[in-house]
Design a protein that fits this description.
Elements (H helix, E strand, L loop, with lengths): L1 H36 L35 H28 L5 H22 L12 H24 L8 H11 L14 H39 L7
Helix pairs in contact: 1-2, 1-6, 2-6, 3-4, 3-6, 4-5
Length: 242
């Protein structure tokens, strides 16, 4: 019974939070990506960029362009689908963890949400800024490896700070600092190489807006996800089972 309720709650929470994230992406983030795509150089070598969307949107350049959803309804549909699936996965973890820790208060939910935001967006963004199409970027494999390392060590560090007994809390800071001491892989040149000065000025302005939009979108997503998880634990996963 408890397992079934946990799964049901996670599905409901994930779908609601995923719809919120996808809506934020659709109205605040995707328009900036589409605007930046106008400036892409068609002769650029095929390169994949992470644009900061929850769907992990990839973009290719050149004649060997990989498949991607068409702009409009198809693109929006895939954004809503992938955002919901991603949110359901996170909700499974959050609802299970908050239920196990008996955390069902909204204040506790906010703390879980902030921890999720820092782990999956805040800490990785310190080394790898969200990228617009056409931005210079290091090799994809190196960026992915550093991102995974940062997420793992940040999550472990926050968990140690919150839950580890006594002296074990002291390892939290080294875990949080290690990926940034190692440093994220960086490209040979930064910015928007090959673009004229007039385009670079516009693209830098778009990039600043893009960072703000993605940061706010992910913060609101994580807070909503965690608050909904706390409500699900409190009202749906029966307190007497504790």
């Amino acid at each position: 019974m408890l397992f079934r309720r946990t799964i049901t709650a996670a599905l409901a929470v994930g779908i609601l939070a995923g719809l919120l994230l996808a809506s934020l992406q659709h109205f605040a983030v995707t328009p900036l990506i589409i605007e930046a795509e106008v400036f892409e150089l068609p002769e650029a070598a095929p390169t994949k960029h992470h644009h900061g969307e929850a769907a992990g949107h990839s973009h290719s350049h050149g004649n060997d362009e990989a498949w991607g959803p068409a702009d409009g309804v198809e693109r929006s549909g895939y954004t809503y689908l992938t955002s919901s699936l991603l949110a359901i996965g996170f909700a499974m973890v959050l609802v299970s963890a908050m239920s196990a820790r008996r955390h069902q208060q909204l204040k506790q939910g906010l703390l879980w949400g902030l921890a999720g935001f820092i782990t999956f967006f805040g800490a990785p963004t310190l080394g790898l800024e969200p990228e617009l199409p056409g931005m210079a970027a290091a090799e994809l494999d190196g960026r992915q490896l550093w991102w995974l390392l940062t997420v793992a060590l940040t999550g472990a560090g926050l968990a140690c700070a919150a839950f580890a007994p006594g002296a074990l809390k002291t390892i939290a800071l080294p875990l949080l600092a290690l990926p940034h001491l190692l440093g994220a892989p960086q490209p040979a040149e930064h910015g928007f190489p090959g673009q004229p000065d007039s385009a670079v000025t516009v693209l830098h302005g778009l990039h600043s807006q893009f960072i703000t939009a993605t940061t706010i979108s992910h913060l609101l997503f994580w807070l909503a996800l965690a608050l909904l998880s706390a409500l699900a634990v409190k009202f749906y996963i029966k307190p007497q089972q504790y």
